[in-house]
Design brief:
163 residues, mainly alpha, globular, 71% helix, 5 helices
Length: 163
């Protein structure tokens, strides 16, 4: 959502070569500042899910409030990761994938889980919540696939793509 994805490298081969240059794959070494901010978004979504589960087990409404509050906090991280990626002028395949996965958790699965916990539990409600999540999955996949087409050298800098 917030990542500067239009600046993605044209092929995954150059990204893969960066990782192969090192003797061993070090996940943390390949992260950039924007990636750590994206992980903050993913952490908020994950904590929202876990807080929702805790609410369902304990019936303590404080957990439900935490679950709901963590979603907009994740949105702040999502906006910030894009700002930092543009500021640092760095976009990567790893960052794009991290951003898509974090967005799916924070803005697809976590809100659906909160809605379920609040009371959307009928068969129709569950179908609607599943459709909500599937729409998020398909939108992010289409966005990533479209980004590949827009990142060709002749279109670079002329195209803005936003979710």
């Amino acid at each position: 959502m917030g990542r500067a994805k239009s600046e993605r490298p044209t092929s995954g081969d150059s990204e893969l070569k960066k990782y192969q240059e090192h003797k061993h794959f070090s996940l943390v070494r390949n992260f950039h500042l924007a990636d750590f901010i994206t992980l903050g978004n993913g952490a908020c979504g994950s904590l929202s899910l876990l807080s929702t589960m805790q609410y369902l087990v304990t019936k303590d409404e404080a957990w439900l409030y935490w679950a709901i509050y963590l979603i907009p906090i994740g949105l702040i991280f999502d906006f910030l990761d894009g700002k930092v990626a543009r500021w640092k002028n760095h976009a990567s395949l790893l960052g794009q994938e991290l951003d898509s996965l974090a967005d799916l958790i924070s803005f697809g699965v976590a809100p659906a889980a909160c809605a379920f916990a609040i009371g959307m539990r009928s068969s129709i409600d569950i179908i609607v919540l599943a459709i909500f999540i599937v729409c998020g999955i398909s939108r992010l996949a289409r966005y990533n696939a479209t980004l590949d087409a827009c990142s060709k050298p002749e279109k670079r800098g002329k195209t803005f793509l936003g979710v």
